[in-house]
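Problem 12. The chain below contains 165 residues. Write out its predicted structure in token notation.
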Amino acid sequence: MDGYDAFESSQASSAMRTTTTTSGHKRWTPSESRYFIRFMASQVEEGLKVDKGFKPQAIHAVIRAMKQAFGVVVTEANVSNHLRTIRRRWARIKRLKEMSGMGWDNNLKMIVMGEAEYRDYVQIHPQDEPYLNKTIEDHDLLEAICGNDQATNGLQHRARSSSPY
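Solution.
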């Protein structure tokens, strides 16, 4: 059983389901989003990222993978919207990393602030709290998906070693 199958069998439900709100928008669960990020990073590794987007076969592959892994039906629009959400998250992380007074711990993949500065900053900017003084899960994979570059050998190794498959 390969890695994809092992992850899929642990996540699949017996019936196909969708996780949409009453407005029709898909609500991604944390495990779906994590799987999506890791799957899309594997698509970068396969050379299916072009410029700032993905080739159609990468989009169709993730649609099939989500159906197999979670039993959920996602559309191209759902994938496009989730990629946009992930890109916004990455833009916020990148902006925070570049701000004066922020430190970056490359080993822990963490934006670091002093306690007093953190407390004051989070009071004014509570939306940034999830990215401060906490390890940023899948940082390198997000960078590969959202950055302007194609995968390098270093990313390919990191993507494989952190992949659930």
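Discussion. Confidence is low (pLDDT under 50) at residues 1-16, 156-160. Students who got a different answer should revisit the alignment rule from Section 12.3.
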